[in-house]
Design brief:
mainly alpha, Peptidoglycan-binding protein, Lysozyme, 3 strands, PGBDSf, membrane, 3-stranded antiparallel sheet, 3 domains, Muramoyl-pentapeptide Carboxypeptidase, domain 1, globular
Amino acid sequence: MLKDRSGRGYDRLGKEAGVSGSSLHRYCSGLSVPADYRVVHAFAKVCGASAEELRELHRLWALADTDREAGPAPDDVTPPENTPDGTGRPRPFRMPEKLSSRSAVLAAVAAVLLVAGFVWLPGGSPDDASSASGDKVLDSPACKSVSMGQHDECVREVQTLLVRAKGTLAVDGDFGPETLRRLTAFQVLAGLPATSAADEATKKALYAQKASMTTWSPAEVAKRIRAVFVEDPGTAVAVARCASFLDPLYVLPNSNGSRNWGVFQISDARLRELDGTPRRAFDPDWNIKAAHRLWSVRHDFHDWPSCQAALKDSPKS
């Protein structure tokens, strides 16, 4: 639907999203599933998807990824940086012919709830949020743990606190991919385990404003990239824009629980090789210099194969 609405062909959309046109055709046709949600997100963004459509795409991708079946698929392997462990070894996969009965039921239930206008809140009803034991919304029994997929006042409070900590996100009460990224970034900056849910420790840190999410603007990031990548500044900026939209606090979860971090989306495995940590990866200067170290191995951008289109077709300014 997004592709048709855009009025553009697979090759052009693929170039803008940083993926080959043939791969994009397979994804849109349901023949295979991207191992990396970033591909789905980038495609949706270039098609002008709304925030609601992005959330629905993430839900559908998560269902499909859960039911992925391992198997040889010579024409559809994940690129090195987007393999689940980030080691550079492609993992072949094949899209199952149909979702399992369990996921099909989950999808059907979700669709019914969305159409009916119901909201599901683990551990309580939406009204429970107003009966907090204290003055703080997240002290309510209904807000025991706030995580992906919730839509209620508990989520809205988490989002409000993240914005107060200088995080940039919409306060809409919907715990989608953007809230997940910002919450994960806050946890790392606050020195907490990156659980990707607002657990008790995270709620306390949010109310205490234990961390600030103030960071560089995209313009500042691009300027620093050009200063570090003196050999090929335009291409380096294009790759970073493809990888993270020049967002120093960008986080991308992989299907096996590992993550990619920061401006150049450095994977957990690469961080270990570079003697880095997720918190260091959120420092844009460190991240850019670390990416340059990776570039220096072969003097090319082989560590970012999914952004090959950006090297050729993205504006290098």
